[in-house]
Batch of 4 targets.
Target 1
Amino acid sequence: MDAVERANAERQKRWVKDQKIGEGTYAVVYRGREASTSKKVAIKKIKVGQFKDGLDMSAVREVKYLRELHHQNIIELMDVFSSKTNLNLVLEFLDSDLEIIIKDRTLVFLPADIKSWMAMTFHGLEFCHRNFILHRDLKPNNLLIAFNGQLKLADFGLARDFADPGYKMTCQVITRWYRPPELLFGCRYYGTGVDIWSVGCIFAELMLRTPYLPGESDMDQLKTVFRALGTPTEEDWPGHTKLPDYVPVGQFPRTPLRDLFTAASGDALSLLSRCLTYEPRRRVSAREALHHPYFTSLPYPTHPSKLPKPVSAQSRPLEEVDGNVQLSASGPGVKAAPPNRLKRKLSSPIDGLRPLARKLDFGQAL
Amino acid sequence: MPVTYTGNEVDCCLGRIAKEDGQETAGDEEEGVVDGEVVMERRAGRDGDGMEGMSTRGLHGGGGQGQENKLVQINCDPRQHRSSRMTPAYEASTQFNNWRFSPERLVLVRDALNSAAVAAIKSAFDADEPGSSADVSFLDAQEEHLLVKLYITKIPQLCGHFRFPEEVEATAITYLKRFYLRNTVMDWHPKNVMLTALFLATKTTNNPISLESYTSNIPRTSTSDVLDLEFLVAQSLNFEFAVWHSHRALWGLWLDLQSLSDVTEDQRSRDVYETALKHVRDSRFTDAELIYVPSQIALVALSLASPFLAQKWLDSKSSGVGESCSETLQSVVVAINDLIVHTGHPPDVEAVREVDRRLKLCKNPEKVVGSNAYLVRKAEEERKAEAKRNKKAQDIRRAEEDDDPFGNALNEGQPRQQMELDDDDD
Amino acid sequence: MSRPSNAGGWLKGTTVRKGGTAVTNSHSTRPNTPQVQSTSLTAFSGVKDTSGRTTEYFSMDDQCPVCKSDRYLNPKLRLLVSACYHKMCESCIDRLFTLGPAPCPICQKILRKLAFTPQTFEDLTVEKEVKVRRRIAKDFNKRREDFPDLRSYNDYLEEVEDITFNLINDLDVAETEARIERYRKENSTLIELNVRREEQYVQALKDQEEQDRLEREHRALEARKEEELEREEKEKDRREIIDRLETSTKDAVKVIAKSRAEANKRSSARTAATALAKSSAQLLRSRAAQSTTVPDVPHVPLQDDWYTYEDMYTLRDNYDDIYSEAVREDREGIMRAGGYRVQEAWDRAVRSAVTALFLPPLSGVSQSDITSGAPQSILTST
């Protein structure tokens, strides 16, 4: 066996794949664990060899950047190994994402909660930008939430280095609702502002609990943006009419953000408007944002461990736990779920009887 | 400079040993960290801020990777006293952690690879036809290296042809060098590896072109020449694609010269820059990037073009830096200078041709399509795959037949998992 | 049962309540229907319902098998169950066992007075099964998460079931007891741990209930205040209208309409405020379950401790730079409009020029290289 293969086999042995938990466009995600410690991980298996141009660009980007970025607000790539012609990324296991939390109507957000999520998002993004990396696909479901409440930027499949002067970039990045107007106008030279716009949209979504700028098509997206924020003038955004795909989409008046965000603090609206500024170079930078008064004024951002979490995500680890005794140390709260879920799924009458005795709960009130 | 020099040296050594232990026990992070902690403790103890030193480990925002390695560097950073709790960003990079060697170690790695390969190929020959390995003249590590070096020279030519940016060129060369720190030319001939490394570099640097148009522009090359090797190359690189380059450092250095008040515009003539850039390109033939930091290589390239500018700039950066660090850098500059001057050029083509001719006779037969050894190996792989498929089928059958009342619960969890695991081979 | 004294062992510390206050109220019209009755005494070890109370079984057909006294003659008759699952009335128990352990009049097994318990189920085999299970559950309290995989957990459940079955049906009693004892010895730590976990859980439930109760009270108080306020406001409005009608020269209809509008405005503001209060109450509830001991901390703009060499250079606003001429000219203004900032590329380049500038190279080889000589070992660390 080659040295390379041998080293790979060593790595592969460290990890155990368990259940399939999701399927993405170019990858299958498994729940797994480290063989020696039973520590939970997510294993993203990327199939290669099915593309005529070889290794998929998304996979290349994701691996390239996650290999280098180590920060508590960025998902940790713990290992990479290959199995036959599959590439396996071992990622830290994260329970939930911001989209699930926003959509969960049983959760109530305090202003301090939103501040906490925004601070963590900006911390992660600032670190990317400090390392000269654009994320280019920020949206609530790419902001994953760890068991301890920490928010982590994930999915670097569209990320890239800042371009050197004069090199073009593609404008077909960022999910439409979070895509800034310069990209909608087909701009090929852009910068960190694209990510900031996305964060602004996420900020608004956290306050509204519904997507802020949900355009139905790329064209409709521009209209939706302008309807919400007013059509930009040459003064608002010098040169935008010269952008490659510029088209006039109608004149909409500017309405104050206050009209829609009635409950937001002045500081919050000030930061939001700095994120959703038309002229990309006048948009706030991630680092400036972290120094914005919104974050330093009261209330303090909620401690991550106390942030609202979907109930399902809270009980899920119990069901998924496999030989992980540590998990039960997370307190009696999780025990409220039946101790033995796998069993309950069964319809077999024989099996159905067995947990019955446990259901009577003899031990409890002795 | 609050940290004394003698202490630094000791710590550097300790740190490095800790690192290497950590690598040796690959997969056992705990141990590496423990080693690191010991080092940290010693350092912290002497610095008199032990508590602070210890507590930063826990607070570290950047997570665990390469933590032990950070300790190697910490004392030699000139700004260390200003930011004692900070870890230099370079030390998070895979380049720092996994692709940085001592010169002695490079020799060792190449020799070990070479002798392992020779042993393996010898036994493959003998298995095919006993005694046949006796009169084969195998390549030695230097000869292998010579061949790789020749193929390094092809990359700039191809990049010129395709008009790829400098970034692609430099990255492809790095990949090629790194590949042959884990493989030998007797297993994988550098021609196709070079083409693959270049193609991979276009993707990792975000300059992708279609494989079709890539190979159609290279004579006698098909898409499969690249596709077949791409995964192997990526795997050999440990899927670590990001590379810090000295040409960017040189650009930055050149820009930063404009911050020096006593350097005139005439002194910064474009010729000087072009000459320095040429030296950076020459450095790509050498092992410099596997031993030194891009900023150091850029500095040497500039000093080769204009010692005056290099010294001016270095002086501006060295104010407030301890003498020890300056001296270290001075010796680094001399060493890189040596490397570029003596090995920073293409190899003698005639010598390489001879090596390549001999390579044809000592290639690993298991990797030569159509050879006996190749067929034997393939058959063995096929047999294993077949056994795996059978086992899988059996598992499923057993699961279906199982009428143990409690077996169902297990079926739900385990055999299905197994089936999901096994779809690796499709 | 070969070890009678052990049979009541798990009941240690509980007392059976003497005397029957039980049936005084039950003059049922259908005397043959079994009835259940609740007592609020938790000292009983009978099976408890969710509120923690014991439901004691009794029937109009009850008769003491020992003294043959029945409910018809003695409405206060109370039958208790022995450790050998035979019923007898309280007066028989007093008579037979007050002087110390004595044989059961039915099966001769030695019994103690304290080891009689109230009957919960009509069928005594159920009674027995429940007791056996309760006893077993006390020691066999492992959880799913105490096992490395589903199979071993199932094996464990299987064993518990086995033991339970043996005890219920008096099979291999001695051997089974030995098994239990062995298990108890082997797992004492874990058993103890799980008992504590359970206690914590119960405590958490209690806390949660208490929290809910406080909150309900709080809400009720709010609602009362709210009503009071509304009433006061209405009163005030009424008085205001009268005042205005007295002093104003305007049309009475208009005055009233205006006052009404104002009152409506206030009332809708109040509704909104109430909605807010409600949602925050809901929030409080959802937060109650969490630990509140972790304090929120002030925001720190940059929390990580990566050093990015920023003190080693000062970026200029502009550079004379061949690479970015096109960008800096940008005649169309499209790079500016798109947000491309050449300063970011410059920053990257200049930082790269000073990055790790003073880093000493590695030197030498470590012991491990020489001994193993395995080239892959140098690269396998992550």
Target 2
Amino acid sequence: MTTINPRKPAPYTMKGALAKKLFNSKTLILMCVPAIIYFIAFSYAPLPGIYVAFVNYNYRKGIFGSPFVGLKNFDFVAKSGQLWTLTKNTILFNLAFILLDNLLAVTVAILLKEIQSKSFRKVSQTMMFLPYFISQVLVGLLVFSLLNSDTGFLNVVLKALGAELWQKTGYNSVVYFAAIMGIDDSIIEASMIDGANGWQKIRYIILPSLKPTVVILLLFALGGIVKGDFGLFWNLVGRNPILYKKVDIIEMYVYRATVSDFNFSTASAVGLYQSLIGFILVLTVNAIVKKIEPDYSLF
Amino acid sequence: MAKNKDGMLESTGKIKLTTSDYVIRGIGYFFITIFAIVSILPFLIILGTSFETEENIISKGVTLIPREFTTAAYELVIKGGSIWQSYCLTIVMTAIGTTIGLFICAMTGYALQRKDFPFRNGISFFVYFTSLFQAGLAPYYLLMTQTYHLNNSYFAVLLPLMVSSWLIILMKNFAKSIPHELTESGKIDGAGDFKIFTSIILPMLKPGLATVGLFLALGYWNEWYQSSLFLQNKQVLPLQYSLYKIINEAQSLKNSVASQYVTVDSLPSESLKMATAMMATGPIIFLYPFVQRYFIGGITVGAVKG
């Protein structure tokens, strides 16, 4: 048996305190080291490269040897009107996605609750979850093979919406369904004893209890409204200029500029513009969430 | 359960289901049935079409039930040989990436929820910041190709998918549900933090490990994006990216003027696409019904606090 020696709280300096903290938690720090190295290598190391947005990139001279051009790269995409078109497309698509995704997910969750047979519910839930597991490449193939190949604007928009809803609804409804299952059954029973009909039950009990979840999820989705779903659009539209001229989003432009055109400076300018707006939006949204529901704020 | 309760209360006469209850229930069954069918139908059509002859697909289009059953497309894919190499590559990458990623996420997630770890807030922010602000594709691409020289290296696919702040936070939330007393008792027995982690925490963390591991594995299996960035000149490609190539080569050929002068026979085969798609997706389809509860658990644990 070991005897426990109560440590005397010796008076120590600030430096000593830090050293002690470091020493006492050395194993926990070491356990975090792989992740820290990982994030430095793949998330923080690219940050200085943002400078490429302010130079006229020259392959031989490298990012930091290329001539500095200030905001010229931003000017170029802004003046040509491309930046505005890309922003508008990305935001409008996301708005439509966010609204329809959540509307459909809530509807599915509410109706799923109405299913009384447990096995029926389980089987249908499993079936609805399948599209989530399928790669976006296959989603692209499904759209090509099963839908018409019309390249009209409305047609492309509808395909994108269809693909999005098809792939995400099963996934999105999970959170709402969990929230509905979390409602105390006795509340619903009491309402029924009081004579509430099915519609009133949904309108006055289920929907209000979903409201906090909906509001939080919508807010965070709005925080990401300038971030498009590259995989979805690229597999529907790809490098086909007839299509991408109609429904280009920021991610597709940046991808083409990087991988096909090697125009790193313009690509980075557009990317930085997007990152900054996204960053400001998330901070704003988080501040709002912190006010209305502090438990759910991100930081 | 709900049914029993409803039934019981109904018999006592306290609760009477109104017409609107039945109408909504009816709508529920109807709509959910339709939606469930729509969810799997496209997949079934591709499956059906993959067993159809090439001529029928071109003249009559896709089909749920093959008009003339043939396994020719599958034979062609298998004979082509490269699918097995793609399978091996994808399986190896999924296994290695998931294992290492899982270990890193578990260690970090556990450490970051320890209340007696003075640096947890700082490191948590360091991890979380990566999802708030990114450098963007161009600087990342330049770093990977010019600095790390990972162009045409499988590491360019393996590494970027291994860890994410979301997965670490998910793991942290799972680790939080393990009572802190277990860590304390380990300490009293004289075990170090790493020993506590491997012998006490890891066995308790099984649901979290399963969930995060499956998210990782799904990410690797469905990977095509990093491959499209960095694996331009590789012979053996991950499954989804080789499917991507087959689809897009056919598509670009169709879109080009040349296709007007080329006979249909010489175009990359439609049934080949379908068969490749089925082979690339098959394992997931068989496995997902058994593991989907872990994904559902992960979504509900990690949904709002992303």
Target 3
Amino acid sequence: MTKWRYLLALMLSLLLLACSHEQESTLTPTLMAAQKQFETVEQRDLHIAEMRTNHMNLLKHKRDRTVYQGIRTPKHSLNGCIDCHVPVPTVNKTVKHTDSEHFCMTCHVELAVKIDCFQCHADRPPVSEKAVKP
Amino acid sequence: MTNVNLIDRYRRKFLGGIAAATGAALAPGILLREAGANPHDQAVSNKVRWGMLIDTNKLKDGGDAMVAACKKEHGWGDEPNSKPEQQGQWARKVTFQDKASDHKVSLPVMCQHCEEPPCVDVCPTGASFKRDDGIVLVDKHICIGCRYCMTACPYNARSFVHENLENQKPHSPRGIGTVESCNLCVHRVDAGKQPACVEAAADAVIFGDLNDPSSTISKSLKKYEAQQIRADLGLNTGVRYWGI
């Protein structure tokens, strides 16, 4: 009998743990605002929903098409994401992928998912040469 | 029976129609790619094979400008924590002198974009590969940094990134633990432009399609009987030299 009681308690605690975790994950961290905004709220929400669940697959799919087939359309290009989601570096401030406020890192730090994209790829938009020269 | 035949005939006609339609749609697409008008959304094809012909007689600086342009385009060679021999080196100037005549020749040496690349043969993961249009490059996503390709390359064209990098160019990703080499500026070629080194020495280098017998590079190759370095290896390089 006591065995069953222990088991029940264990299951209950596990269930509670799962519930509390679920509740936490609905509170998404505040992300940096993108440089460009969608015209309508529907478009924006669609983009957010698609990207939240699928960005890794889209990026990986596009990456192979780019590397092997030379297809470099702006859609799902990593540079395209970065150009819009990370601010252009200024004299005063450069947002790097090591900062937790970097668009990608905000969630990845929260979820403890390590990405190595930025070991090679640029983590911020390029500074145009004209802008640097006074 | 006649009914079945009719259906078959109808099917054949229909399929033929589809084939004709796609054929008509494809032809202008390919033309577009060659003209560089809107090539971004089309996969590269083995109808073209990119190559370049370097005239060492016209290179006044022996290729220094070409190497510098490559460095600027891809940002290699200034790794702060690497020893000189560990620095990235996508292209380098090689000078050789004939002992008897003292005749000196300098030439820029980079990945020769072989038709039969030894680096691709030895790569254990398939990271080293030849694109359909003849450009040999490294898929750094699956490169494990074993450096077999560096050993296999007879031209010493490849280098290895030994340290964490920052401030890479958006169009030229490069990073720790992977092998890198000249990629014939794929990002530029895909955009219908010429590689950075070709632009830096426009009067000494011809870039073009080796498969097209009427292209300037093919004609010049035949006319000047341009050589490949280490022709004895039979790799049929895409980078050719004249005047060595």
Target 4
Amino acid sequence: MVVKLADNIYSPLGATTWENYQAVMAGQCALKQYSLPDGSLYTASLFDRILENLEDLDKPTFFEQICIVSASDAIARAGIDPKSPRCRFFLSTTKGNVHLLAKGETERALLGTSANLICRHFGNPNPPLVVSNACISCLSAQIVAMRSIEAGLCDTAVVIGCDVQSEFIISGFQCLHALSPDQCRPFDKDRCGLNLGEAAATIVYAESKHSTLLSQTKWVAEGGAMCNDANHISGPSRTGEGSYRCLQALDINKDELAFISVHGTSTLYNDEMESIAIDRAGLADVPLFSLKGIYGHTMGAAGVLETILSMQAVEHGVVFGTRGFENLGVSRQVNVSVDCRTTNKQSFVKLLSGFGGCNAAMKFSLTDNSRLSRDSRDFRKSGINAIYITPTAEELVELYRKEVGDYPKFFKMDPLARLGFVASEMLLKECPKADYGVLLFNRSSSMADDMAFQATIQSHSEWFPSPALFVYTLPNIVTGEIAIRNHFQTETNFMVLDSPRTGIMAEQIALAAQHGPQIAGWCEVDANENYTAALIAVPQNTTKETIENELNKILK
Amino acid sequence: MEELILKLKKEIIEVLNLEDIKPEDIDENAPLFGGEGLGLDSIDALELIVLMEKNYGIKLQDPNQGKEIFKSINVMADYISKNRTK
């Protein structure tokens, strides 16, 4: 049983969870209007801070500082020893220090660099794992942390979610025409796009039997699910397929649910998709709310921030209202909470979806009576197919023509997606047909495409941010491309490490493989466009040892 | 107009990475989006909006305008010739 020990939210509305909860209940929000270099207006919830160009890169950046501040508070409240080898750190972020690309600081902008720095600050001896799975990162990270604890890989897990805003991110969403110039209106008929936000939020989990503070813990992470739409890399499924499947996968008794804390970004398509998924899952009458009208979309922090506030709400017997919502503007009659109301129920569901077609849901309960049996681990040895390629960009195109040839969308993909796509196509030729999950790792995230997008906004006088480049500035888009091609509608996830650590990769692949067969491995394109793909097809319930042996063989 | 149409075709092929397609393969009257013609999608439409601004100084505030303007190469070229500022 995985229990929450403590948490923290560090946002423009407050430095602790309690300050944030009070601010929400008092009807505050930090959304303000700003403008981009081309004069277009956007509304966001941002910290007041010294400009990033004053950052000393030998010290923690603003992004890293707020991660450290948030995690310090949560760790102190949890009373755990972050130096213990039995404690692990999970960092959920989509873009980390991406603003440093404007100064050509590619190495300092790597997600693994930030994660290592944060981990070192706390003296933790384990390599940190970065989960970068678009807007569901923070639920993916919690699910991964939960599984790691259940499998005995660690006793405590510190899950930090954080993103800060920059011209890079804001111009990207702007060129996708996804931003609302005014305060957003989730689920409303007049909604016209999202607001971005920034925050750091931390949640500390433990296996209950290892927790000396169990008497203080009240929250149980009961389960989590991730499912891909296998539909489109930026547009959500018109049938809510992935979110619906996530809700179906959770053990939900709707009479126990206080509410569903939805993604509710206030874009036309997201809110419509969620209403369809919730209706299809038979949960249309369960109250739902979105916190985006208060915090904006905090991206890599959203899953933890919104989970923590939802826990506060249940503890106080409250269902939050949805700031900005007035008139229902989705096709299904879902129960959008307009104003705060009371509840005496003790469970809730947190729902998120993101680019790359990914969706995630988790269920939490305020009880210490829940009993979760561990996943049965019926390990058996099986044959594992593998592929290792290190092509140049030109050789990769040749490989595509020779091995695939019938998928012109290949040419629209960024280098990372091209690499993962071709490698997976070659690998799958040798594999039995199945609904594979996709779990990929690398060091440089989506760096090659990030640099290409940065070039389109580098000059304010030649400001033409490219939507086609921006949609690939998330590393998990490659997993979405593989899912779309093969119609895989189960888990897709992307993690970043400082190097191909086969032990850590094998642990996570084995945990994912408990839920189904996986296409998994290392898929890296660095800032100099050096390509390396080392993928394996892992049958369900393959052991960590078998996977690590295979990875060691192909990655030498 | 013929010259603008050819230029536009080349620009679209380049900016949308339409590998293996030559200007003469594109029917000026065929729909750019959907199952027929070039089969472009929503991200391509947004990229065409950037192309219009970058190369012809035409700023479309509402992406829905694109639905009319990007019906075919001919419609697009006609709109550009009437509204271009560069």
